[in-house]
Amino acid sequence: MVKNCNFIEKLRGLGLRPTKQRVKMCEVLFNREKTFHFTINDLVKMISEEMNEKISLATVYNTVHAFEKKGYLKEITINSDKSYFDTNTSVHHHFYDEDTHELIDCDENDIDPVNIKKNITGKKINSVEVLVKVASDNQNQKKLN
Amino acid sequence: MVKNCNFIEKLRGLGLRPTKQRVKMCEVLFNREKTFHFTINDLVKMISEEMNEKISLATVYNTVHAFEKKGYLKEITINSDKSYFDTNTSVHHHFYDEDTHELIDCDENDIDPVNIKKNITGKKINSVEVLVKVASDNQNQKKLN
DNA sequence: AATCTACATTATAACAATTCTAAACTGTTG
DNA sequence: CAACAGTTTAGAATTGTTATAATGTAGATT
Predict the structure, then answer these.
(1) Is the CB of A35 under 7 A from strand D?
(2) A134 contacts on B by Cβ (under 8 Å)
(3) Alpha-carbon distance A16 to A97, whole Å?
């Protein structure tokens, strides 16, 4: 487990002042075994529930964007509903469950490497990301409600 | 050039009443040499500028979604700001130029078919989309934004 | 052709996600 | 510790989109 002091160092290293709010957010986001996906709303809930802390919504937005800009978080493109973020900043693919709106990391072995045979001239490829949208296979699904 | 009458037939074939508004929108969207990408706002502008016509914003949303549902338009996932649509409904992928924020269709030959080896149990795959983010090849310059 | 009705259109209200504002606060530097 | 630039904050504003409810219309039925 990473201690607060390390987050302070980490933040300084990124050129971000280690404010109370930012350190708290680091704890919520990065003091974990596994990486995960979240929306701003998820994160606000986590902060208030897990940390019993109140950070202004505007600050959560500011900080998430600051982290993203520094490459400490990654935005994932799913649908135009809302923004999703990932604490796993490596290049990897996703399944998106359209029923549950759940986002699941693809295992490295789930998808063969994507082979791009031709590129835009004068451009270099920054990332190649695959989004596999899935939904319930049940055709005769009963509508409850 | 496709005549109105054909759009009327086309709409009927899709199970959509060929209203004045829908036929107008077909003309703006499909009476072209090449397919293209657009936002709702783009489309509203095109309707008023190219057709000198006024269609209610709600109708534009309704109709675009109706077309999408029938497979006459395709939604593309770029970012979460707003929805983008594509008059090219075939399965294809996109290059996204991070410098110019331009979206470019991948040619069929540009990317090999993506092979998904493992799926989520009980789910069927609805779509597989690849987004290739490219940027200037010049230097190792950081994004300035 | 008049009538009927389910589907469409419309302006506007409502909504949700995000950004802006401007005042108060705080980490850092000297 | 003083000064200041960077940060936080609540609330307002903005943006993209969906819901509402009254009015209009395409196409079938008479």
Answers:
(1) no
(2) 119-120, 123-126
(3) 35
